[in-house]
Amino acid sequence: MASKKRPCRPEMFDFEGISMTNFFTDNWEKVKNFQSRPDDILIATYPKAGTTWVSYILDLLYFSNDDPECQTSQPIYMRIPFLESCFQEFSTVTGTEMADSLTTTPRLIKTHLPVQLVPKSFWDQNSRIVYVARNAKDNAVSYFHFDRMNMVQPEPGDFNHFLQKFMKGKNVFGPWFDHVSGWWEKKQTYSNLLYLFYEDLVEDTGREVERLCSFLGVSTSVEEREKITKMVQFDDMKQNKMINHETIPFMDFKISPFMRKGKVGDWKGHFTVAQNEQFDEVYKQKMKNTTLKFRTEI
Ligand code: A3P
């Protein structure tokens, strides 16, 4: 990510039934044929659901003792490749190339792909997957601010415009509704998948770190877990230049920081009463066939 060139905002188009931009489809043959390994850990999320948070927790759980230097000198997006990314204007390496060149074990790999587009080898290798989901209203608000400040995302327009698009599922990586419920259904048959909620992480980070350790079979001392839990608090992550994304050239922090609020219920300051009623109606309809339940406040 060396170049400081400011990009044009991309167009969205339909890709396998999902709204996408070229940054996530240009390398598709390599993504589709990506060779996973049995000990890989895939961190899967809809954008803005807490990807960086869980990525950092896993990074600390696996590598803080081995290579503390690395955590203070290398941004998280270099340590945890974003599988489908292909930002040719800014980086000479694609997400798949970065993943292929990782020498650490396990490899931690991030994706925003809906479950049906995940490369087949992850299922064949029975790789472990951590999925994080966040309630739709806060997820939408966070995504709106992200699209405002991230110049490689489509222009969001005003909040109402963005929200109408969100309800129709016309965001990069497709409908939130199908993403969270598709991965939820997968969990019913694929046992190597841990489904976490952003709201649970906010409520009790230590408990969720423990849950992660037990799913991954990582044994850490209570002291170590407490240390990690402290390091991944919002204010600490916001100050950490290797985590807070301020080194990314196409994000404009004057518009909004990447680590913005980190709250459950922030949507209440964004939705009008009418927008909230409309959203609840759409939500009821779109989520009527799933057992998945979210908390919009804690
Ligand atoms: P907000 O925009 O609501 O603040 P992702 O990493 O998937 O892009 O998600 C980013 C969202 O997760 C942002 O939400 C960010 O502030 C929030 N986040 C990241 N780390 C967090 C933490 N330690 N505690 C609470 N929220 C966190």
Outline of this structure?
Strands 4-3-5-6 form a four-stranded parallel beta sheet, sandwiched between helices. A two-stranded antiparallel sheet has the order 1-2. The chain has 298 residues and is an alpha/beta fold.
**What small molecules does this complex bind?**
adenosine-3'-5'-diphosphate
Q: Gap between N and C termini, in Å?
A: 38 Å
Low-confidence stretches: none
Order of helices and strands: EEHEHHHHEHEHHHEHHHHH
The CATH superfamily label reads: P-loop containing nucleotide triphosphate hydrolases
Major sheet size, sense and barrel closure: 4 strands, parallel
Give the overall silhouette: globular
- Our count of helices gives 14
Q: Output the strand order for the largest sheet.
A: 4-3-5-6
The CATH class turns out to be Alpha Beta
Determine the structural class based on helices, strands and strand pairing.
Answer: alpha/beta
CATH topology: Rossmann fold
How many strands?
Answer: 6
Q: How large a portion of the residues is in β-strands, by DSSP E? A: 5-15%
**What is the total number of structural domains?**
1
CATH architecture: 3-Layer(aba) Sandwich
Give the overall pLDDT as a whole number: 94
Helical amount: 40-55%
Radius of gyration: 18 Å
Pfam family, one: Sulfotransfer_1
Family: Belongs to the sulfotransferase 1 family.
Subcellular location: Cytoplasm
Domain Sulfotransferase: 38-290
